[in-house]
## 1
Amino acid sequence: MVIAEYSNLIRVKQLISNSLMSLELLESKEGNLFLSSSAKQPEGFVCFATTPALFCRFLEGLVTLQTLLDESPSRFIEINGKDKTTLYSRNDMEVILTSGDKTIRELTDSCPIEIW
């Protein structure tokens, strides 16, 4: 089982950082990929696992940011709020990402990211 714990992850690349949202790619020591994204509900930052195939579909503009979270292999997600960090079961709550209804192209239309 892959559990997202932000403090144990290595930063790979800040994909988006603006006044509306943040999206960061992270990696575990074992090579698993994770994303940290702004959340609208509950408010804060959500850290969740992804797969290389799913992440590539997102980079190709085939799925939205919310779909990336919804199809995540993470059964548990970490939410960093203003006052606390909590680990939640995805079965216990619905997380709505900031700009989750957008694809990478829509998110970066005015400020493209460099895909390495």
Note: Residues 9 and 28 are 5 Å apart (CA to CA).
## 2
Amino acid sequence: MVLIILQQSLNDQVNESERRSNELRSRLVRSPDRVKTEIGNIGDEVAEKREVVQAAEEMNRNLQAKLDKLQQIERASLISRYHLLLMTLS
């Protein structure tokens, strides 16, 4: 009886060791050079996307500056037309 319990305990330990070994094996990197290359490629993609975002932000700032200038011109034009209207009415 004791031998059966001992054998079962040993079998349980072997099974747990195999399970743990399989778990660790699945986490191993099989091709470190390929992973390194993929990480480098991802870094390049991020840099390219960062440049695109920066260009879009610069374009946005330029367009906003032009819009602000057009709004100033429009206000000045409205004021001038208002003054002209007042002058013609008096």
Note: The radius of gyration is 37 Å.
## 3
Amino acid sequence: MEKKLKITKKEIDPERWYKPRTIAENGWIVAPNRKSNSWVGSYNYILKLIRAEKIKARNWGLGKTPYYRINGKEILRFLENIFEVKRSKNKK
């Protein structure tokens, strides 16, 4: 698990803004109950995280349809929090 986090940190540019689809396709954030190898489940999971304000995103949409982008720093922050929670659960 630690190895995956290190690899992901190398792939993500902290200064860049990423689309939820790009994040899902690269497998950086994966839906916990994903049943297939499709990135679509992870994409929907990322949108739920944004709507629940668990991951911060900027809406670049000009109309009714939102067009979210997530900063690389925010992706890394979210992943570090997730791995920290998993680590603390395993220690108990």
Note: The two ends are 17 Å apart (CA to CA).
## 4
Amino acid sequence: MCKEVVNKLTGEIHFISSPKLLRSLEEHNAICSNSYVASQVPQRNGIACPECGEELYDTNPNMTLTSMVPKKVTHCVCGYTGYRNC
């Protein structure tokens, strides 16, 4: 048996034939926030520091600057800070 559902934004009619096993918004947000916090640790990016030659770190791996070309903030243990193209 199909269930008729109307999209309130577009007015389109959709027919749902069987219930889907979906997680709740709260479950989804809990999962995403846990993985987001874990990925905030600076990560090495394989690029040599222009001042000392050590490997640079992406300061905030989840943040991309919306410049044209998109960039990430990088830093080094020697104190260098710069940007790399994505």
Note: The longest helix spans residues 25-38.
